[in-house]
Amino acid sequence: MTAHVNYSQRDEIRDYWSDRAETFDLQVGHEIFSERERAAWHALISRHLGPGAGRASLDLACGTGVISHLMHDLGFVVTGLDWSEAMLAKARAKAQKRSADIRFIMRDAERTLEDKRSYDVIVTRHLVWTLLDPKAAFAEWFSLLKPGGSVLVIDGDFVSRNWATRMREVWEKLTAGKSRVSDNDGAAMARRHQNILARVYFSGGARAEEIVRLLAEAGFDQPVVDWKLGAIHRAQARQMSWPKALERATQHRFAICATKPQ
Ligand SMILES: C[S@@+](CC[C@H](N)C(=O)[O-])C[C@H]1O[C@@H](n2cnc3c(N)ncnc32)[C@H](O)[C@@H]1O
Questions:
Q1: What is the pLDDT of residues 30-67, one digit of tens each?
Q2: Which of 33, 59, 68, 160 gives 20 to 30 Å between its CA and that of 25?
Q3: Residue 177 confidence class, pLDDT cut points 50, 70, 90
C-alpha cells in the first residue's frame, strides 16, 4: 500500500516505456528495417539541420537510440538522453555493436541538467505527444541551444481517429491471429497507454499548430512545419500490413524545425 505513495505520473510513464524496451525495436516505425527508410530519415534530418560536421547534437528521449544512430551516421557528435534505463541499455548495446561513440545519459527531457548553450542542434522523435509540461520542456531546450541552434521535433497526433483507423481496426478483427505483422502491444499495455494518454498535455493528440505556438512562445524563431514524410512512410509501408500503412499515411504526422535567434 505504502510502496507507491510517492509514485508519480513521471514514474508511471517511465515504467511504461521501460516495459516496452524489450520489444520496441521489433516494430516498424521504431527501428529501421531498410536502407531505403534509413536514407529517407537521413534526408529529413539533413534538410533541416544541415551537415553534422562534428557539431554537438542532443537526441531527447532517444529510446533505443534509433535517431541517435542516424545523427551519428551524419557526422554529428551525439548525446542521447532518456529516463528509462531499459531503453538506454538497448541504445548502448547497439552503439557498442556498431563501435559508435555516442554518449547516453539517463535524465528527464524536461529537466536535462545539461549545460546551457552547449548544443548546436536538438532532435526528438515521438516525445512531445507524451510530455507533461511542454512549456517547461521547450524553455529548457531553448536554453540548451547555442544562439542560431535548431530544434527538430518529429511527432504526430496518434489519438485522433480517421476513416483509415476504422478500416484498420475492422481488418485486424477479421484477420486476428493471422497477421504476420508485430504491431499489437497487447491489451494490458494498451490500457496503460490509454491511462497515461488521458493525463498528458496533448491528451487530445499532438497537433502541429499547438507545438508551433508553444515553440514561438518559448522564444524560437518562426517554426517551419514539414509535412513531407512520404518517403519515410512509403519505405515503412513495405514492412507493414496495408491497412496500417494507409492509416500512417493519412495521420497528422509532421516534423517541425525552429531556430534560436542569434
Ligand atoms: C515512443 S518512444 C521514442 C523513442 C525514440 N525517440 C524513437 O523515436 O525511437 C518514447 C521515449 O521517450 C522517453 N521519454 C518519455 N518522456 C520522457 C522524459 N520526460 N524524459 C526522458 N525520456 C522520456 C521514454 O522513456 C521512451 O524511451
A1: 999 999 999 999 999 999 999 999 999 999 999 999 99
A2: 160
A3: low
- In the chain, how many domains are there? 1
Degrees to nearest 5, angle at CA 196 with 195 and 198? 70
Question: Would you give the DSSP letter of residue 28?
Answer: B
Cα–Cα distance list, 85 to 22, 28, 63, 101 (Å):
12, 22, 9, 18
Ligand 1 mutation pick, 25, 130, 140, 153, max ligand atoms within 8 A of CB: 130
Task: Pull the grid cell for residue 96.
Answer: 557498442
Q: Which amino acid, residue 249?
A: A
CATH number, domain of 157, equals 3.40.50.150
> Whole domain around residue 229: which residue ranges?
2-259
Q: How far is the CA of 221 from the centre of ligand 1 (A)?
A: 25
Encode pLDDT of 87-105 as tens digits: 999 999 999 999 999 999 9
